[in-house]
Amino acid sequence: MIMQPNIGQLLKKADSRYTLVIMAAKRAREIGDSGECLVPCESNKPIGMAVHEINAGLVHFDRGTSLKQQQQEAIDKIELVADAATWADSESNEVSENNDTETA
Question: How far apart are CA 95 and CA 66, in angstroms?
Answer without folding.
Answer: 44
